[in-house]
């Protein structure tokens, strides 16, 4: 019985320690570009799909993350309007996407 109890305590401590790991920041959610009109947003979904809203119009697309790299592919009315690769960084509720040396800062929209 003592061995079973020790194994249970060890297993419990293992899961407790694993559960204490820091939560990685997620890109999933709606982001508003700083310095832009309030109607402009990027929304990243869990299934690697995304949408971009601009003045009441919406364009759909996909994104891929690989380490600090991001690939964005966006289409509107059957035409590709963005097919770019760059880097991204999340710090709290701030997201920075850099493409071709051009950085754009976003703030996460609280819903």
Question: Your description of this structure?
Answer:
- This protein is of the alpha+beta class and 111 residues long.
- It has a single domain, classed as Lipocalin (Beta Barrel).
- The protein contains one helix and eight strands, in the order αββββββββ.
- The chain has an eight-stranded antiparallel β-barrel.
- It is globular, with a radius of gyration of 20 Å.
- The N terminus is likely disordered.
Compact summary:
The chain has 111 residues and is α+β, with helices and mostly antiparallel strands.
Task: Provide the fold topology.
Blueprint: H1 2-19, E1 29-33, E2 41-44, E3 49-54, E4 57-66, E5 69-76, E6 79-91, E7 94-99, E8 102-108
Antiparallel strand pairs: 1-2, 1-8, 2-3, 3-4, 4-5, 5-6, 6-7, 7-8
Secondary structure category: alpha+beta
Task: Based on Cα principal axes, name the global outline.
Answer: globular
Order of helices and strands: HEEEEEEEE
CATH C-level category:
Mainly Beta
- The average pLDDT is 83
CATH topology: Lipocalin
Taken as a percent bin, the fraction of beta residues is over 45%
Largest sheet, strands/sense/barrel:
8 strands, antiparallel, barrel
Give the C-alpha Rg.
20 Å
List descriptors:
111 residues; alpha+beta; Lipocalin; 8-stranded antiparallel β-barrel; 1 helix; 8 strands; 16% helix; 53% strand; globular; disordered N terminus
